[in-house]
Amino acid sequence: MSDKKVSKPCHHCKSKSASAPTDTSKIHYEKFWLYRHCSSVQQRDRQAQKAGQLFSALLAMNVVFLGSAFISSMIFNKVAITLADVWILLSILKVLCLFWIIYYLMGTSQQPHAVLYRDSHAGTIWIRGSVLLFGSCSILLNVFQIGYSTILVHCKSRVEIVFPSIGILFICTQAYFLWHHSKDCIQVQHNFTRCGLMLTIATNLLLWLLAVTNDTLHMEIESQLREVERRFAGKAPSHPHWCNETTLCTCPNTTICKVFQKGYILLYPFNTEYCLVCCSVLYVMWKNVGRRISHHHIPHTKPKFKLQGVVFGPLLGTSAVIIGACVFMMYQIQVTSLVPSRQVFVIYYSYYIVLLPLMSVGAVIGTIIHALEKKELDTLKNPTRSLDVVLLMGAALGQIGMSYFSIVALVATDPRDLLNSLALSYSVLLIFQNITQNVFVIDGLHRRRTPPGKEEDTKEEQNREAYSQRRVSVLELGQEIRKASLSYIHTYSHLSWKRRVLREISFFLVLCNIILWVMPTFGAHPLFENGMERSFYGYSTWFVIVNFGLPLGVFYRMHSVGGLLEVYVTA
Q1: Are 190 and 285 in contact (CB under 8 A)?
Q2: Count of alpha carbons within 13 Å of 149, Cβ hemisphere only?
């Protein structure tokens, strides 16, 4: 795999050169030994690009399978493969990724004509902001883990200190790399860059998988300890299998140890989000390697986030956030007590049953307005938008899958019970809300951008030209201005009511998705803690379902916020 620099490309390639000031003589065309007999440079370049993507994807697939085998062996056979072995493998992968990122920053990107194009759709500010936010929380998580392991160094392995230390360096370097280079369409060292990006994606996926399984084990231990407490309190356990092993490595009764322990538990969910967000940004960069963007892809104006013209969306959304925060605090206080109240589950499900239909109705109205609009669909190639659609559809499967499992369990047991009927309604409404919101967001992302005020500015210029050409008296001029102003206001109101409604709906859905992201992220898991589905499927089976579906559901809410903000800005 090598690259070839062509000094005089054909006219076809010259028409595809885009972002000024770009000279086609600076373009590095790809070359691959399998396609060395292709007649044209462009055809050889396209085939070499596909071959490079295939080989780098195969590299990532093998790394993911290897890491998954290690993690699975650690779960099912803790004697042969321990958690320390998994950490050593991931540390090696992190170090390799660090070497490649540093080489990219100091070598590849510094070469002449390395970055001729930048994808304006990639690396939006809220995506890069999410990388910084979740990355900062992940760094704090590793700091707490180092502190906690240092206090218990007499019974902890040294790997438990080395692994998070390497993790801090990896997170900082990767966050800097994504913040500054997420828009790059690299034009040199194509295949080496693709392999480096795919290796980094595979490493983040394995870190996410380990975080999910570790969170599963952590929640299982916490729940089993609660069962032990109920046993001592004279309550019957909700499942027959609970831990009989004594804890040899317990946190001493000191404030600093409790702070490290609680901080680690609180920040743990952000690590899973950080890994998934980094994977999505890295995938777009991988798709953009060797990409040459035409001038049609370059927006003439960048839409900005403004709160002008929206009233009801922020008002209703803020109300939903405040009420949701109150429900969440009540839920946390009650569930963490020794005997959780049945009433708190009723309040929690009732909040969702009221909120989810409002969100669904808003999404349906927004989709109908999209259908009434005369905007053309944007059919230009856009890897970022394609990835957004795939992530929205894929992440929604987490909540939809858990909901269907819950529906089967509730219908098969006792659907007439109050709590069961509320949980059943919650699951059905959640499925409908996910589907309607996906349709609204995906349709909005495919609408062609129309700069706001374009039609109005054109009419105003025409009016000014007309007035400058006519010699009329002051009275006649005043009457003409008044008529033109009334006509302008009427025209503006007639043209922009759809945009105003779309903005109200988008902003309302943004705030609703934020509170629905916060609640499960910080520990509201009624699907596991109410015990209904757990008793139907069994403890271990339901735990696997929840802990693979729940992180996807949390990621779906966060990613929906980005998509809805895009719809809001471009409305």
Answers
A1: no
A2: 16
Q: Which one is predicted more confidently, 543 or 29?
A: 543
Beta strands in 102-141 (DSSP E): 115-118
When pLDDT is cut at 50, 70 and 90, the band that residue 35 belongs to is: low
On whether the CB atoms of residues 45 and 6 are closer than 8 A, the answer is: no
Per-residue CA distances from 261 to 141, 166, 485 (Å): 10, 20, 65
The C-alpha atoms of residue 483 and residue 473 are separated, in whole angstroms, by 15
pTM, two decimal places? 0.72
- For the chain, the domains span 47-233+250-293, 303-448+494-570
Any alpha helices (H) in 152-189, and if so which ranges?
A: 159-181
Q: Which two tokens stand for residue 245?
A: 């092993």
Q: Residues 495-523: pLDDT tens digits?
A: 467 788 888 888 899 999 999 988 887 76
Strand partners, 2: 31
CA angle 45, 49, 52 (to 5 degrees): 135
What sign for the dihedral angle of Cα 514, 515, 517, 523?
positive
- Residue written as tokens 């972002």? 19
Q: Could you tell me which of 136, 134, 142, 160 has the C-alpha nearest to residue 279?
A: 134
* Residues 493, 361, 309: CA angle, nearest 5 degrees: 30
CA count, 13 A, side-chain hemisphere, 540 = 5
What single DSSP character describes residue 270?
Answer: H
Q: Reduce the DSSP state of residue 294 to 3 states and report it.
A: coil
Predicted local distance difference test score (pLDDT) of residue 467 = 45
pLDDT recorded at residue 459: 44
Compute how many other C-beta atoms are within 10 angstroms of the C-beta atom of residue 365: 16
- For residues 116 and 215, the answer to whether their CB atoms sit within 8 Å is no
pLDDT, position 307:
57
Longest CA span, the chain: 98
How crowded is the C-beta side of 569, counted as CA atoms within 13 Å? 15
**Rounded CA separation 481/483 (Å):** 5
Query: What phi-psi label fits residue 538: left (phi over 0), alpha (psi between -120 and 50 degrees) or beta?
Result: left
Residue at 442: amino acid letter:
I
Cα–Cα distance measured from residue 499 to residue 313, given in angstroms and rounded to the nearest whole number: 13
Calpha distance 523→342 (Å, rounded): 17
Q: DSSP code of 27?
A: -
Any residues with CB less than 8 A from the CB of 544 and at least 6 apart, and which?
Answer: 216
Using the structure block, give the residue that is written with the tokens 């999910």.
212
Could you tell me the sign of the dihedral formed by the alpha carbons of 134, 138, 141, 147, in that order?
Answer: negative
Cβ atoms of 86 and 74 closer than 8 Å: yes
Which two structure tokens, joined as six digits, stand for 475?
């009275």
CB 440 within 8 A of CB 370: yes
Q: Alpha helices of 470-538 — where are they, by DSSP H? A: 474-521, 526-529, 532-537
